[in-house]
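Supplementary Methods. Inverse-folding protocol.

Structures were first reduced to a discrete structure-token string of length 264. This string, shown here, constituted the complete conditioning input.
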């Protein structure tokens, strides 16, 4: 099974990997919430938040630029907030007459846009670090310990599991198609557009039937092994002194970031 498609866990002996998953989930949520509460244009506070991320990257043993390199792909999605540039508040910077509409970017709008980009970028980085240092079963257990509804955690668990199942079925169908698609040298394979659409539709139908039949077999095997709606893990979860210490230090650092953001 192609487990590397979705599973982004990187095993490396480090202090971050050894932390209780509940602590890591709380740290991630508090970090994202802290960034959301900062006022627009709090560049010193955003810099301190990024410094905190760099320290966490270093402590994880994955390298200082681990989350930075992987978070760049998420930056284009922040362009959905480009309308914030044309906020009616603030001083106009220019007037763009497009004929059917007039756009007026403002200084406060520009600050708000870049603040949204920085917030999103930092939040994506801490989320990447969380999934890279926490195995998925441990992450689900942490959500259950933090009183997330069990129905929701079960849905997340099955969704994650069936992503691998569906991916495996897709690769099997593609291999079967390639094995039955012999071609002559120098002759382009495939048919007309209608034939390609028909073939693709048949593959999608086969994927649905195979996935449905396999899901029933998986469910029956889970029931026969005593599944009662609770995801089990071999890793015990105990809050040790180190976990409480890291959580306290992180919260203290977030308080400092909030102080810098609202005072500066």
């Amino acid at each position: 099974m192609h487990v590397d498609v979705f599973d982004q866990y990187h095993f490396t002996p480090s202090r971050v990997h050894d932390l209780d998953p509940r602590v890591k989930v709380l740290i991630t949520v508090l970090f994202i919430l802290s960034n959301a509460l900062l006022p627009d244009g709090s560049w010193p506070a955003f810099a301190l938040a990024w410094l905190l991320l760099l320290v966490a990257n270093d402590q994880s043993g994955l390298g200082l630029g681990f989350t930075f390199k992987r978070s760049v792909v998420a930056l284009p999605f922040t362009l959905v907030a480009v309308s914030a540039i044309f906020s009616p508040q603030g001083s106009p910077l220019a007037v763009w007459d497009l004929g059917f509409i007039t756009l007026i970017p403002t200084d406060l709008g520009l600050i708000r846009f870049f603040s949204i980009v920085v917030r999103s970028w930092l939040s994506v980085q801490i989320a990447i670090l969380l999934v890279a240092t926490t195995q998925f079963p441990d992450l689900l257990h942490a959500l259950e310990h933090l009183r997330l509804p069990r129905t929701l955690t079960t849905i997340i668990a099955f969704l994650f599991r069936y992503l691998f199942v569906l991916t495996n079925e897709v690769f099997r169908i593609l291999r079967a198609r390639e094995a039955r698609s012999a071609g002559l040298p120098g002759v382009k394979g495939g048919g007309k557009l209608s034939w390609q659409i028909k073939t693709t539709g048949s593959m999608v139908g086969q994927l649905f039937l195979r996935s449905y039949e396999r899901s029933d077999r998986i469910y029956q095997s889970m029931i026969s092994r005593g599944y009662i709606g609770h995801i089990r893990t071999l890793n015990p979860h105990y809050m040790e002194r180190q976990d409480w210490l890291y959580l306290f230090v992180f919260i203290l650092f977030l308080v400092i970031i909030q102080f810098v953001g609202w005072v500066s």
